[in-house]
Amino acid sequence: MDQPEIAAVLESLRRFVAREVDPVMDAIEAEGTFPRAMIAAMGEAGFFGAAFPEELGGSDLGFGAVAAISEELSRLRPELGYAMNMQAMTCPYTILNWGTPEQARRFVPDLIAGRSIGMFALTEPGGGSDAAGSMRTRAVRKGDRYVLDGSKMWITFAHASDVGVLFAKTDPEAGHRGVTAFVVEPKRFPGFRADPIPTRGLSRVFASNAVFLDGFEVPVENRLGEEGEGFRIAMHALDFGRITVSARLTGLTQALFDLSRDYARSRVVRGRPIAEYQMVQHLIADMATEVEAARLMTRHAVALADADLPFTGPISRAKYFASQTAKRAAAAATEIFGGYALAEEYRVGYLAAYVNMLNAGEGTANVQRILIAEDALGTRPAGRHAIPPRRWRGRSA
User: Fold this and answer.
1) 183 and 296 share a domain?
2) What pLDDT is attached to residue 118?
């Protein structure tokens, strides 16, 4: 990982947000239209391509850069953090890792350039991400097409998506071995509908959606991997999604810490800044320590990923710790700000809403606890679904 190069990317990101995002974001939210031009500008600036080889338009900086960009973006503008999953990790990287060279060439460059909008559709109503037992979406092969019927829930960017990775059962009697992955093109074929889900305190334009599939067609050549390989693909993809989510939670914690520290220095009670009161100092000390720990845990996991070593357990622990750290930071900030935490003048409530959202992303705290405990007890090793990464440059065309 080239640290000076990553530092330069982060400085470029800060300038981009100050110049291209902050002045217009309120107007975009008021208008309610997905800002495709903004995503394209981010792609053109190279913010989505760090994990991808240069021949596909990436910068090949590695997962450490992905984490650093995700953290800083979430610190500055949490709503844009969604794009790091859909444009920089779970959607395009799953296609790169599991697709044919032809599929990678066809879909990945436009996704990481922001010319195509991506999505990752696993979760379903009532069953969450339980692909083994609760998936009801069906895919039936008819000649050179699969016909998909069913629904998905909490699918980010689905209302704007051009390309996505979607999971459906091709054999409903086979449990998790009946799940198959597909590269879908919602605007190319009929039978796909996405309805944004109203969410309190979160962005209207970078929305999650309920998705409905009614006779939606997917060409056979868009199948990702083999029939029945979808569950393994999904579990593998979630590892990489947890890189961005862990980093985004760390960025939110850093933003809450920065706000709290600055407010504690300026807020005067009984003639003294509240930073001089020991109870406030305890809160600040915990935030300062835990945000650094969350960052180091995430960096450890991504260093393993960059070295092509197993990282399922470490990234699950990092995601869990970062989520709990962010929740405690939001509570501490609310305590430090008092009633002003509710005021729109300050960003506390805005940041806390994204903390709550990311606690569910790529597995809730309870899901992570199960994964971590089973791995620690040796009953189900965390890396049991992992595969050696099939790097693009290691495959023949």
Assistant:
1) no
2) 98
Question: Helix, strand, coil shares of the chain as percentages rounded to 5?
Answer: 55, 15, 30
Question: Within its chain, how far is the Cα of 140 from the centroid?
Answer: 29
CA nearest neighbour of 63 among 257, 308, 251, 296? 308
Rounded Cα–Cα distance for residues 16 and 249 (Å): 21
Of 117, 145, 174, the position where a domain reaches its end is 117
Total-model pTM? 0.93
Q: Give the integer Cα–Cα distance in Å for 59 and 51.
A: 7
Q: Are residues 101 and 128 in the same domain?
A: no
Q: Which domain holds residue 105?
A: 3-117
Same domain as 387, residue 267 = yes
Same domain, 183 and 308: no
- List 79, 185, 290, 362, catalytic entry: 362
- Given phi > 0 = left and psi -120 to 50 = alpha, else beta, which region is 32? left
Q: What angle do CA 282, 287, 292 make, to 5 degrees?
A: 135
Residues 162 and 64 in one domain: no
362 is catalytic: yes
Phi, psi dihedrals of residue 370, rounded to the nearest 5°: -60, -50
The β-bridge relationship of strands 145-152 and 138-142 is: antiparallel
Q: Could you tell me the mean pLDDT of each successive run of 10 residues in the chain, 397 residues long?
A: 85 98 96 97 98 96 97 98 96 96 97 98 79 84 97 96 98 92 97 95 95 98 96 92 97 98 96 96 98 98 93 94 97 96 93 92 78 85 62 40
User: Do the bridges between strand 179-184 and strand 163-169 make them parallel or antiparallel, or are there none, so unpaired?
Assistant: antiparallel
Tally of domains in the chain: 3
User: Can you list the alpha helix ranges (DSSP code H) found in the chain?
Assistant: 3-16, 25-31, 36-44, 63-76, 82-86, 90-98, 101-112, 230-266, 278-306, 312-337, 348-360, 365-377
CATH number at residue 132: 2.40.110.10
